[in-house]
Amino acid sequence: MPTIKKASFLSENTPLSRKAIISLKTKAATKRTWPEIYADWLADSFGTITFFVLNAILFLIWMFFNSGIFKNLPLFDPFPFSFLTMAVSLEAIFLSIIVLISQNRAAKVDELRQEIDLQLDIISEQEITKIMEMLAKIMEHNHLDISDDPVLKQMLKPVNTKKIEDDLNKQI
């Protein structure tokens, strides 16, 4: 069996395998505290048509029984329904907090996902540049003149990620 000669254009630092990236959402879900689990469950439960309809029915029943239609029934919250207004306001405050807790957790997962995307983009750029170098060497080996192609020359230069990062930091 012939021995395979390592190509000189491959860097010693080129990783030959990649680790599988486990879903960030799954990882984050396993690290949630019980209040976060409860907040997510509440946000999922309250963000439904069923919850909306139940609230609407409850409010209508409340107003109906406190409207004075039934003379024998004492009014526990007469018009303008001050107690109902307070209860609805408190419900809105708690629902807002629950939604914010869930959104903050989702934002953290999204930030991690964006960071991984950036890292993969950088790796992909390096790999594409290496492939272009290999193609240029093949073209030169086949005596094809590529010296007058300024676009190719620019593409063969590695992207200066530090400069991009500095430019972005100036915009922040």
TrEMBL record:
It comes from the Bacteria. Keywords: Membrane, Transmembrane, Transmembrane helix. Coiled coil: none annotated. InterPro entries: DUF1003. The keyword Membrane applies. The chain crosses the membrane at residues 41-65, 81-101. PANTHER family: INTEGRAL MEMBRANE PROTEIN-RELATED, MEMBRANE PROTEIN. This is DUF1003 domain-containing protein.
